[in-house]
Amino acid sequence: MKKTVKSTVLVLLIACSLVQSYFLIYRLPGNDPVVKSESDYVKTENMGTEMKAEELVFPAEMIVHMGAGEHTLFYPGSTFYKLINTRLQGRLFDGFQRYDASGTNWNTIRQQNEGIELRFGKGVPVALLQKVMQISNDPLLQEETINRILIYNMKNEDKVRAFFFSSQGGTVYEATNADLTVQDVKQQVGFGKEWNPSYTLMDSGYYVPDGKTEALQVTLDTGVFTTDQMQKSLFSDPSITRNIREKDGSEIYTDIKRSLQFKQNQNWINYTDPAASGGTDNSLGKNALSAVDFVNQHGGWDAGSGGAYRMEVSGESGYSGDSKRRQDTVTFQQYYRSLPILDLEGFHYGVMRLDMHQGTVTSYERSLIYTKGRATDKMIKKQLAGGKELTDLIAAAAKDRPISWLYPAYQPSLTDEGLHLTPVWMLVYANGESEILQ
C-alpha cells in the first residue's frame, strides 16, 4: 500500500514538473514561445502601419500622348491618374511577343499617336504587376522587370498596340491580345486634353512643362523611433547584443551574427545580416514580396501624413550566371500626396532600401523619423519653373550630359517645427546620377 502511495505521489510530482516546464517555455495567452530560434524576429507593436504589396505598385507618372506632338503628365493621386489607372487595371493583356527595342523610333510613335504611357521608375517584377493588372502568365515574361508600358492607337488605323519595356533595356514585349479598343484609348486620352500644363518631349525622352507647375510646400509634425524599439524588432534577444560606439558618433549593436548601425546625426539605421540564408527560390517576385513582409514585421510604414510608398526592384547590376546567387535590391519610395520625397546625402529620408537573397533580407536601411497626421495649417502653394526658364536651368546643370528623366519631388529638411518639404525639380542623368535643380 505504501509503495502504491509513493508511486502515485511520484507520478504527480513528475506531472507537475512537466506542466511548470510547459508554462515556462510557453507564455499565455497565445502560446508565444519565450525560447525562439536565432533566425526568428520579435515584432514590435505600435510602430508603423502594415501595407499590402498591391498598395505599393503604381506608376511614378502617367503620360498622355495626344498626337501632333502634344503631351501632358499626371502624377499619383490626381483624379485623372486614378481614373485612367483603374480602367487599365480592368483590361487583360495577353499573347506576348518579344522584340528588339532598338529597332523602333519610340519618340516618333509618342509624338504622332494618341496613347497612354505608364512609367515605373527602375522597374517592377511582372509577378508584382500581375497583382494590380490583368497580365497573363506568359513564359516570355518570367523573371522580367518592367519599367514602362506604352499603349497607343496606330495613326490612321483601327488598331491598339500595347508594349511592355524591360528594365534591362533592349527588349520590349508586345501584348498582341490587349483587351482595349481604339475608343477606349481615345476616352482616356480625352482626359489629358482637359488638363494643363502641356509638356514638350525632349530628344532624350524626358518631358518639360510648357508653363509653371504648382505644388505645395508643407511642414509635418514628426516623431522618432527609439533605439530600443528597433533592437526589439530586429534581434531575437536584444539582451545579448553588445554596443560599439564609432568615432563618427554612430553606434553599432551586434549579436555576433547580425549588426544594427544607428547614425544618430541622421536618424538613420543600417541593419545587416550577412549570414542570412533562405530557400532555393531567388526570383525577383519572391524577393519583392518577402521585402514587403519584412517591413510589415520590422518597423512598418510611415502613413501618418496620409502618404504612400512606391516599390522599385532592381537585380544586381551587370550580373551574369546562376540567378540563385543574384542579390536584388528592393526600394520603397515614400510619397507625400502626389510627389516623392527625396533621399539626400546630407539627410537620409524618403526611402526604405532592402537587399534580398533567396527571399531573405541581407541589408535593411530606413529612417527612424515618422510623421504625425496631416499639416493642413502649414501649407504654402509654390510654383516650379517651366518653359524656357526651366530649360535654361537644365542646360546650365547638365552641361551636355545626357538626361533620362525630369520630375517634381520634395526636398526634405528637419527643422524645429518638424519635417519641412520643399517642392523642387529633380534631374536624372543617363548614367543614373541625379541632382536638384536650384
UniProtKB/TrEMBL annotation:
Pfam families: YycH. InterPro entries: YycH, YycH/YycI_2. Residues 4-431 form the Regulatory protein YycH domain. This is Regulatory protein YycH domain-containing protein. It comes from Paenibacillus zeisoli.
